[in-house]
Specification:
The protein is α+β, with helices and mostly antiparallel strands. It contains eight helices and 14 strands. Strands 1-2-10-7-12-5-4-3 form an eight-stranded mixed beta sheet. A four-stranded antiparallel beta sheet has the order 6-11-8-9, with no helix packed on it. The two termini are 34 Å apart.
Amino acid sequence: MSIPTIIPTVDLSPFFITGDDEFGRKKAKESIAKACTDYGFFKIVNHGVPLDLMKQAMDLSKTFFGYTDEVKRGCSSKPGAPLPAGYNKQPDHSPDKNEYLLMFPPESPFNILPTNPPHYRKTLEEVFKYFMKTCQILEGIINECLGLPPNFLKEYNEDRSWDFMVTLRYPPATDAENNGIIGHEDGNLITLVLQEDVGGLEVNKDGEWVPVIPAEGTLVVNLGDVIQVLSNKNFKSATHRVVRPRGRSRHSCVFFYSLQGEKWVEPLPNFTQEMGEKAKYRGFYYKDYQALRMKNKTHPPSTPEKIITIQNFDI
């Protein structure tokens, strides 16, 4: 099976125009529903994010990560945030190999963003707002694909304070290893990925790792654990990883459309009681699940089998 068939590219333009393109919307929703049912991964074009803004964000990120460690540490994270905002580097004992800059919504008091290169902070804040709007459109589409009442997910997930965005640099692979991020699923609802032409992102489909080939102007979308739990596994949280290339660094920008920490997450009655199915997961507070996932990073377990995933909440 060819890669384009496995990883569909969906045109979102029908959701941005003022006219009524019912055929275009129907086609997009069918493609998204199939991808989310199979493995939770697809690509989008005509997504509303200006292409020159995406390029500027990537270019400025490369400049920032090219600074010395001393300069980058000037915006290191401080305690108190739900996640370590600002600049961080994976610890030496981590199987993941990257450095990153994490930000919450532009108005968040937790943000620690660099003043250099010039316009970097403003660019990141603009990209953040566009990515959030695109995710809101995707959330509405997913809501329809799941057959939920109109605006259900929007009303369930109306607080945007826990959304966050990460720009990353992965150093070139070595002779010993090429891990960028080991195979995992995201813990949120929807993730957007902007990757440069280097590639390295791979999705697991039927037990095989399939490369997600970069294409100019394209964003990668994957579902996270929250959607999988709410839908009682009717829609899948995508398993993916990053493999570092040889000879050059890899840069990306990833947006995580999330939940406010106090939200309770459990399979919805629409997919249990109304379908005569048993719930496949125990419920949990989103903040507690995020804390467990963060512990995977700060205190990596001795074996992969001990990594906490959504499977720990299986019934």
